């Protein structure tokens, strides 16, 4: 039986679709939609009242997949049960653990979050920590599914032998990125760095070292070229106890860089253990430790054999398991389980 599947996004996807089709960008932000035959998408209007006008249209679908619109998902789920519609709301959580920590001292807010999340047919967790945090909040485990995140690995895989230079690249605009620690580490190395970020990411209370160049808001084609020329990639993130950014801060960039065949040094975050073996697929250092980061950079720089082994192992794992196609396949299996 053919099912009507809808992806609900909070921002336009036309440019993303165009760039993915033309090879100028990735399909990562489509969350597997383009790999599910017949799937449709809608853009949620801005503002709560305007979103509510979308409910009759949403109830025409068997499956709605969203990563935002908490209240709208709750209303649609309740209406489906009350009026016996077939609509199932599948929620891809990006920030549930961060929200739980941020509002830990606000029981009313936590109660509301719990009501919203408990109403959904399934919550798709991108890490085991997210899943366990939701269980601790009181969400039934059977409503939670761990699905590894997927990126557009093909976009980042080098078409030819890369021309590597004596360059370290660090990319990311997530609020959880820790460039302050990177800047301090760079002062203890002789290597050249290129950071690609937004202006809001760059710390104002520390000067930019002379061996770091900062580029703002570069297109993905430029990021891909930087990866091709990079000797290694560093992804510094804030400690998970800091309620900034997404739950799995650094996830997309780490997967992208590994897909590009680069050795990666990253700050320890719980999600990494769900996807990789530290020391085998990438190097992991503790948060806020600029000396450890500088030491890891210098050690890996001088060990070409280890660098190659990490790059090959990490790339193989991403290509085999953590792509948008694999994510779409997992979504279809979940849809089968709820319909």
Automatic annotation (TrEMBL):
Molecular-function GO terms, alphabetical: glycosyltransferase activity
Gene3D superfamilies per UniProt: Glycogen Phosphorylase B
Family matches, as InterPro entries: Glyco_trans_1, Glyco_trans_4-like_N
Residues annotated as domain Glycosyl transferase family: 159-315
SUPFAM superfamilies: UDP-Glycosyltransferase/glycogen phosphorylase (SSF53756)
Pfam families listed in its UniProt record: Glyco_transf_4 (PF13439), Glycos_transf_1 (PF00534)
Record-annotated Glycosyltransferase subfamily 4-like N-terminal domain positions: 47-154
Top-level taxon of the source organism: Bacteria
Name of this chain's protein: Uncharacterized protein
Species this chain originates from: Candidatus Kaiserbacteria bacterium GWA2_50_9
